[in-house]
Amino acid sequence: MALSRADTSVLGRWWWTVDRWTLAALMMLVGFGYVMLLAASPGVAERIGASSRDLFILKQVFFLAVSVGVIVVISLLPVRQVRRLALIGFGGALFMTAATLYMGVEIKGARRWLHLPGMTIQPSEFLKPCFAVVAAWLLSETRSIGWRATVAACFLFLLVAGVLVKQPDMGMLIVVGAVFCAQLFVSGINMMVVAACGASGVLGGIAAYFALPHFRSRIDRFLNPESGDTYQVTIAMEAFGHGGMLGVGPGEGRLKGLLPDAHADFVFAVAGEEFGLAICLLILAVFGFIVLRGLLRLLGEKDMFIILSATGLLTQFGLQAFINMASTLHLIPTKGMTLPFISYGGSSVVAVALGMGMLLALTRRRLMRTDAA
Length: 373
Hints:
3-stranded antiparallel β-sheet; transferase; mainly alpha; globular; 3 strands
């Protein structure tokens, strides 16, 4: 892109202030998502009896294109507008997430989706990035209005946690809880409070183990594979072994046809079979680069709202990628969580794009921070 530093247009100012390395890494992930869509989706479309295999693929291509537009458009916003967008998005996403308890579509014993004309949406996906920014705003106000801001942030977290437990979606709750704990830690809150939050999380996990049969089943199958069905994890591990270092080649994978969620939760196994360990390590490196680059970008930052927002968004992004890849590799109990920009799913890819767009907007270099007020 040939834009002069003297260009004072909106696009020109954006190009010379946005973190172009992170933007390039995100576009690389979108490219991986497109390649993996072509590799994993056709077989899935045939297996589930989709009316048109091409339509099944084009639908995700559309969402990938939308995600690129969302990243760019949101990254153009000033800090103040990012905060306003997050507040509006949080309110709407929380309302819709609560609505799933009464009007949601039940799949595998959980109500997490709403049917809209022509599509199904998972509102909690949009709740994650918006909550991270709203919580950061409240925690950053603690220095000016006192402990009431922290109490308000904790109240919103408990509200979100209550809705997620009712769905239930323990994986989403773990991510949101980790984001909030990371923000509390970075905000400089008393370590006793952080320790109490961690202890509450452990106790909550124990309670969920005894109260939620599906949660207990996943833990038991991880600790003792013979205690239940581990079909998908077993096939996924075989796929990695079959792929070896360089893979069997694009479209040549045979085990992906045996994975019901090859296009979504277990897309990393498809990458391992067809492209090998080398590409899997490259994907891991890109995720790691985005998180580390974002944290390094904050080293010279003095605005606490920006620091906390970016910390939350990066924690969410990195943890979601870790959970997907680690569960596919049987390093942690299986969890139905998508790999950002690579797994199939419209709500997921657009919601992650929203979060990354806000991250790029918040970390743009500015000569003055007047827009952060």
